[in-house]
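Batch manifest, entry 17 of 40.
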Amino acid sequence: MFVRTLCASLALAFSACGIAQTTAPKSPFAVKIIGFNDYHGNLETPGTFGANTLVPAASRPAVGGAEFLAAYVARMKAANPLNVVVGAGDYIGATPLISALFFDEPAVETLNKIGVEFNAVGNHEFDKGKDELKRLQNGGCKFNGTVQEANSCKGFGSAAPGSFDGAKFKWLSANVVDTTTGKPLLPAYGVKTFNGVKVAFIGMTLKGTPGIVTPTGVAGLSFQDEADTVNALVPRLRAQGIEAIVVLLHQGGFQNQITGVPNQAITSDINGCTGDLKNSDGSDSDLRAIVKRLDNAVDLVISGHTHAAYNCSANTVDVRGTSLSNAVTTARTAGLPNKVGRLVPVTSSSAFGRVLTEVDVTLNPATRDIVAVSPRNVLVDRTDAAIVNAIAAKPEVKDVVNAYKAAASPLANAVIATITAPMTNGANAAGEMEAGDLIADAQLAATQPASLGGAVMAFMNAGGVRNPGFINVAGTYPYNLTYGDAFTAQPFGNSLVTLTLTAQQIKDVLEQQFSGCNGQTATRIMQVSNGLKYTWNSAGTCGTRITEVTLTPTDVTVAPPVVTGPTEVLVQGGVVHSPTKTYRVTVNNFMATGGDGYSVFQGGTAQLGGAQDIDALTAYLTAFKSPGPAYNPLSAVLAKPRITRQ
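Output type: structure tokens
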């Protein structure tokens, strides 16, 4: 009988796990690692998804949902009693209403029931700050001052109503240091023992987290270099007799990216690694750069962050270079090179519970090392009859989901507007999103009155426009848009900030959208409000890409919007006409404090706080609710396109 133990460690102190078997086996044996990333509290299905992007939309199965994740994990675990379930971050934050309304306690409770044991922190784990992350780890109700929040501690998935157990899994934060103590905020790694062989899981997020999280969320924390952190831990692990090392890293890349072409449509298979891994603009990915510096002791990297699916591995080829008798070399890239050039398997499972990564590793008890890695990404297919039957036989997780859904439904199902066509968060070649246009207009409308800021333009970060945007999943229109739909597209709870920028600063921040320009780390095209238009040149260099900017004053507080003044040229031929002329500009508080690398906004003056983004959005959409006209994203009065690419 095998006895398996679970233990987690701090970076500087570690208690060895118990021995799993008195006499370890002499022959290599298999262990199953089950991983997924970027769950984002998707208790319910996020929609359809295909194993390959070439699969026609109509043929893609419905995927995901907490109860289906749990059932798939249970089936994988049943195939091998030696197993562990792990994550690569962003299990909470930017969540649908069914989780966010209850402070992401539902996300944690369902993850407990799915059986997660270790999870790396992601950037969204810090959306509400370190204290809230610790509460979700340790349990207890959420308070606003001395008053308990009404929607906290529903307890549908905890030990009892009125309670919240906290995470039964361990969040790992190897490279996140609490500046008051100089130690990792949470354990740096966890260890699980299989047949007497210890396997370490190092968990961490990208060091660039402070640039993509509201500053209050990362206050008091320092984010260290990812590769340096791992490499420093290797000797400590080896001192404990640990040779098998897996890194859970919240950083990622994309397949098939073309250099200099941001927001491109790509073709990829969930088990492919075509073109290795790139950033969205085609440059070498940050993940690839990290792996290239990793100590040769690292056997596997399970990654996340980009919401992409990939499997960079040679499947059953020995990761130490010696082929097994049943080795099969696939067409995909065999891995990413580490510091000595050895190819390390690297995986990611998309996002929102759509895909699971099932990794069969072989442990050699003589060397205590992982000697072979065989990963595969598996769709969490809701049409699998055996899985459906398993859920019917054991509906515990489904019952939790249904309980939270019922509690959220009065607010979620409230109709706020009617739309005539879909508005997705997919960007065109210039980077413009239909959903982004709507959100920018709503934020301008909320701050355009003189008493509320006197704004004449608004900018919205594309990363804050969440999937899928504003659509009817059934595909029929007109569609009655609900509060739940709107919240899904705008879930962060950011507040609006109106500030004063000069024409030169507007040009500068538009230039700052491109990777490598003025500290920007990725190409991030902002969405802009009605009346503002700009042109960018993809062949340009930093400081020369923005060639034209015009502003046509437009009152968006009325429906339909009305042009109120002549068009003004801010930039022509790349030259700013009146560099010191000032304008009132609205952004969210994340951007105002330099989030997503837009540091120019930090130089804005006369700042005035405003409504929450979701409140501004719902207020704007009210005008398009019966008996008023429906919102038509194709209407000429919306002055599209607003962004042009040369």
